[in-house]
């Protein structure tokens, strides 16, 4: 069974991932991993940290001659900025009184984390809670992508909205893969231009923007997930995976919340039988019925809140003095919705890979391919 564990702090030496359960014999494309890391750092509205870091993955174990060994795969993404923070972050000994964060930031883990762990410096909380952690999750996600692509399972996504600029059009899987932009990962260029103007306006005001992204899974056969226990339900597992991404505050499956306003006769995907196959005339369920993949394309949407680190600072208090203050600021983005799309793809890839590994088993990629090929569509 596949498991993923990540470690590392935002301004520490680096970020690390240990992946267990990757079968032997999978060919690894390093360039594709680094391309995804670059895509995570790119996008209109990103902040100064992206100019400091230039993320590259280093494989520390589990791979020889770009082929997996069947042993745990360890990945590292080193923090170039650590040299500027070594004095304050070194595990071997450092100055913990400098760079303290006492003015707790609304929307962050600062206040709740300080109370939970009994510390007086939010630095000890925010370093791990930071979205910087997602760099190594993206590197791991690309390993999972290459594993799933060996079974002809593909994942893609795009940004459906930024702020009030919303793309309401319907797109095929291929249109998304081929048509999304580099700047905001959107498909409608007119909507994207409006989104850029919103981002520019927020930057001038010292404010931030969120948005909605949409994810698709193509090629996953029927039968993954189960209604037999709540822990096995595929939609519940994927929703949990997407909610684990920093700043994601809502997840939809298929038509999602709009189903609540429909009549039952409008909401469900009617079933037909044609040329030896069961078919449906729609996909409002998002490819999952009763917690089981039904063979249709999986469709998910995730809502990202605006980043809570504002350059103008929100009203708060100093944790230690209890006096009114302005929230502390760290380097931040105006809009990171395109980056969130990349990270959510990685979270989705990880969960799909876990579900597939649980059903297929097998020690080698040859076994995986054989067993997946034998499954009924």
Describe the structure.
The strands form six sheets. Strands 8-7-9-15-10 form a five-stranded antiparallel beta sheet. The longest helix has 24 residues, at 337-360. It starts with a strand and ends with a helix. 40% of the residues are buried. It has twelve helices and 17 strands. It is 34% helix and 21% strand. It has helices at residues 30-41, 49-52, 82-89, 110-117, 123-129, 134-149, 173-179, 189-205, 234-243, 264-267, 337-360, 365-374, and strands spanning 3-8, 14-20, 57-61, 63-64, 67-68, 73-78, 154-162, 165-166, 211-218, 248-253, 271-274, 277-280, 288-289, 292-293, 298-304, 315-317, 324-326. Helix 9 (234-243) runs antiparallel to helix 11. It is α+β, with helices and mostly antiparallel strands. The model has no long low-confidence stretch (mean pLDDT 95). A hairpin with a 5-residue loop joins strand 1 and strand 2. The protein is globular and about 70 Å long.
Layout of SSEs?
Elements: E1 3-8, E2 14-20, H1 30-41, H2 49-52, E3 57-61, E4 63-64, E5 67-68, E6 73-78, H3 82-89, H4 110-117, H5 123-129, H6 134-149, E7 154-162, E8 165-166, H7 173-179, H8 189-205, E9 211-218, H9 234-243, E10 248-253, H10 264-267, E11 271-274, E12 277-280, E13 288-289, E14 292-293, E15 298-304, E16 315-317, E17 324-326, H11 337-360, H12 365-374
Antiparallel strand pairs: 1-2, 2-6, 3-6, 4-5, 7-8, 7-9, 9-15, 10-15, 11-12, 13-14, 16-17
